Amino acid sequence: MKTTIREERKKEIIRGFYDLSRLEGMENVSIAKIGKHLGMPPSLIMHYFPNKRLLVLGLISHILHQYQLIYKPIINKFEKDHKVYPELLVNRLFSREWNLLFDDGVFFSCFAMTFRDETIKREYMKLHLKLRDTLKSILDRDPVFSKGDTALLAEKIFVVIEGAYYYLSLIGDEKEYNRKLNIFKDQVFQLLKLESQLILEDSE
């Protein structure tokens, strides 16, 4: 019971840290401000997170949990039909729901710290690898894609996704954003199409 209460309290503090970071910018958030926001004494927050660096590490774990939700409709559809639908996969991977699941500004504020902190860098690497591994596990269960190199395919897809999201975050014009988005989505469609064609040709 104590462990459950402890974990729930830590999650509450991380969510409070995230909410304030989204509103005020992570660099402007202090433990005192989090305490005021949550209505708890700063000493209680420091009991769980003695410094802001540990809060950031907790926030990275929260990012991963949120981003994993992007896969849920793909997994649910697969469990029903036992195949991966490229259109659903691409639309989910390029969904603006990423932005709803976690704020871009907070994500990049955390990411900037990877250049100064090796532990945070390692945690960010784990986050990226886990997203790739989850995609690989989905491809591994598909009757066609499972016959190919799913790790390499997942890596190629995420190279496009990550580059696309960084670039798209700079575009303010809605029409231009959608035009570029469709270009990136088509790149991933072509990757999936080429991979399935090569696998089918090899199996003949």
From TrEMBL:
Superkingdom, natural source: Bacteria
UniProt KW keywords: DNA-binding
The record's DNA-binding region positions are: 30-49
What molecular functions are annotated in GO for this chain?
DNA binding
Please list the residue ranges annotated as the HTH tetR-type domain. 7-67
Q: Does the keyword DNA-binding apply?
A: yes
Residue runs in coiled coils: none
InterPro entries for this protein: Homeodomain-like_sf, HTH_TetR, IcaR_C
**What does the record give as the function of this protein?**
Represses transcription of the icaADBC operon necessary for biofilm production.
Subunit relationships: Homodimer.
Q: What is this protein called?
A: Biofilm operon icaADBC HTH-type negative transcriptional regulator IcaR
Report the source organism: Cyclobacterium lianum
* Origin organism lineage: Bacteria, Pseudomonadati, Bacteroidota, Cytophagia, Cytophagales
